[in-house]
Amino acid sequence: MKNPSDDLTFLVIVGIAVMFLLVVSVLLAVIFNQRKKNQHRLAMEKLREQQQNQLIEAAVRSEENERHRIAETLHDEVGAILSSAKLHLLGIKEDNLDEKDKKLHEKGRELLNDVIHKVRGISHNLHSNILKEFGLNEAIRHFIRKITQGTIVTATTALDDNYETKIPENDISIYRIVQELVNNILKYASATEFIVSSTYNNNELDLAIFHNGHGLTQEEFEEMRFQKDGLGLKNIQNRVILLRGKILFTRGDEGYRINIHVPAKSPVS
Amino acid sequence: MRDFFKQLFDWTEVWALLIPLVFILRRKVIPAFLKPVKIYVFAALILNLFAILIWKRYRLGLNLPDWLGSNNFIYNTHSLVRFALFTWFFLALGQHFMHRVKKILPFLFMAFVIINFIFYEDFFRYAMPSSRLLATEAALLLFYCLQYFIYMLLEDRNISVSRQPDFWVATGLSIYEAVSFTIFLFFNYLIAHNIKFAISIWDVSNVAFIIFCICLSRAFHEKSK
Lengths: 269, 225
Hints:
heterodimer; A: alpha+beta; five-stranded mixed sheet; 7 helices; elongated; B: mainly alpha; about 80% helix; globular
């Protein structure tokens, strides 16, 4: 005869198994669901990052094109008109002028020379032909020389001459970053000395700008680049994102340092 | 050797708790929602140690007073403590899903306990723990765990579940309560009709308790990272 406790024993074992399987199924459902959600999130993040990079690239490109256009107009049109004006001014015979007019003629010539010089400077600043023709290192050296001319600031450049241009658009971005940072140092940091150096290893460029003024820390940079008057810091950050590089602001005992790392496969495609 | 392993298994409810205890002691700061779990580990360790000492009193040569003749009231107490602390844990998580139900359940359970032990059962019954209490407690805690998992499925949170301490607590608790529910439900009947099977099936509950303790350790380890 069948013992009723045997049925119960069976019932208990089945009960345990069913409950256990139920909980395990729920757990697996949660884990797979969460994994799916995370995969979706990662895909969305990647897409968002791609879109952001495309937007940044478009903005940087259009800014660069606009700079080019203005530089060309200044150089070819305004510069040509000013040069023509200078020729006309030089065409005036000084012998026929009295003392007062001679002085005015002299002053006008000086001012015209000054304007021509300034327009050429602005044009070169907006679109560096040196960068195009002689490369990044020479463009940076030239820019530093020019910007510190006639000031009390001592500037030193120690750039790695092994650097080779792989993608010209990247050079423009790196040049603009250096330009913006050096301008900021001269404008706001009250530095009396700065050094721009670079090393180039395994197709990776490391630029460092050191100065003895009052600079920014990483926290201040992160904070200020979201401000409206962000000293062009947002522009710097955008170009760094575009290069897929890194920028780091640090404070040392003797001054402030800005390190820019541009990886081997930084892409402006 | 066989006796050694048998003794080791008999003491499972005590030594298994030492695993999460190590991780708790390594932690300096415990987040608020894990505090009930921390208290549970300490409380369970004391209660289980007490229960096993009563059970093994003859083997250990302990002279205990008459009212400590059975450890069943300790299992009942453990059940109440576990329900109270894990209810606190699930409420402390601050999930808005079924919040009102989760708040009402402890009061319903309290009413059930009072009515059951006034009119139907003796809390200090010598022969066996209360199947009714243990099974009800297991069912309610299972409900808490399942609603937690449903919330995780519905909620659009982008997190890695394996890195969430609360997930590990709920996982361990759900496995333990799912396995133990059927055992608790039929335990009184099994003791009366098939005591040998009742004793062996308690070992299954002990294995589930070890898994539970490992999951608790993982919860405290996740937080300590």
